[in-house]
Amino acid sequence: MALMFLNGGAMRGGPLHHLLGGAPLVAETSTAAKYRFYSVGDQCPALHPVSHGGAHIAGELYDVPMDVLRDHVMPAEPPELELGVIELVDGSSSLAMLLRRPSTSHVQLIDITEHRSWLAYKERADKERAHKERTT
Q1: Cα separation of 33 and 109, whole Å?
Q2: Is this model's pTM higher than 0.85 or not?
């Protein structure tokens, strides 16, 4: 089993949650304030460690069997992300998906750190899209 911090589509209610194969939720938590947060092509979020200007990013911590991580979770991740180890708000460590550096593609990155959550970012983006559609 491996503790895996998730902050995108594999969280509860997300379109990729089924990939966890029933892995138990350990906690709703956040990262230490050592990360910037990006939207990768507006398809998924990515954490990027920084020495200054980081923020707490919300997510969920799961106890995922290594074979589920290997066979289901990792193959579903985009090439712009890579597996790494992060620090959580309580000082403990966890696996998480990080923005691959150097970048392996030309997908647009949008800094969404101010939202501190993928769900908050997506809700705001959806409202802005709906507003634009109504006014055009």
Answers
A1: 20
A2: yes
- Here the tokens at position 72 are 């289901």
Nearest to 35 by CA among 5, 15, 12, 64: 5
Average pLDDT of span 42-49: 94
pLDDT score recorded for residue 13: 94
Q: Say how far residue 13 (Cα) sits from the centre of its chain.
A: 14
* Domains, the chain, ordered by start: 2-135 (3.10.490.10)
Look at residue 6 and give its three-state secondary structure.
strand
Percent of the chain with pLDDT over 90: 82
Among residues 120, 123, 110, the alpha carbon closest in space to that of 30 is found at 120
